[in-house]
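quick one, 117 residues, struct below
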Amino acid sequence: MLHRQRIDFMEATLLSGLYLVQKELPDDKEAFEYLEWITSEVGLEFHSQALQQRFDEGLALLKKRGTYRKILENYWGKGNVPQASFLDMYPVQGVYFPDLDQFWRAPRDPVGRILAP
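---
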């Protein structure tokens, strides 16, 4: 609808929006522009404090071991993960805005993960 100018804009996470354009309109990807509309905190609800604590500990371990970054690089590419993905990590990591050429060049599986070279 956006491509056919039936709507003026759409809202999506940058990763989802880029992947959707790449998958559905690969020859017209240059026709789209992207801007940061708002950065909002996203939260999860847990049915118990114990479950939330286990989740937090597991996520902290993924970040400490570098696994969190590797998961994100499976979608963005090595060295191309946006800083917004690391908001709670210091020192600040990632790039201010990802290199779209690097994003577009990467061959992907059906869910958007970059295929290993």
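The CA atoms of residues 18 and 108 lie 12 Å apart.
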